[in-house]
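Backbones bend. To wit:
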Amino acid sequence: MDTGESKLVDRTKQFALRVIYLVQSLPSSATSRVTGNQLLRSGTSVGANYRSARRARSRAEFCAKLGIVEEELDESLYWIELLVESKIMTQKRVDDLIHEGDEILRMIVASIVTVRKRKD
């Protein structure tokens, strides 16, 4: 396994764990539960889908699965934004998680672009 891929496997798993801890820290309210459940679903699927992409059987399948990772990560960032904008969570509490999500998202998009440009 490539070192970059290994690091991304670890980073996506750590992202999922951080999402889990964030959701566990949410206050007990209907809004927090619904938003938290959405975040939990999308945030934990990032790493799972990345691992699945690494086992793709073709370039097309790899790109399609990375596209799912991109969507789930973007959705996770959306739910985090809603938590902040609804004043359920402070911006300071989630800044590092947003930054990490943005970095991973940029890497995934760059990977998709690179793979689509290759001619084999």
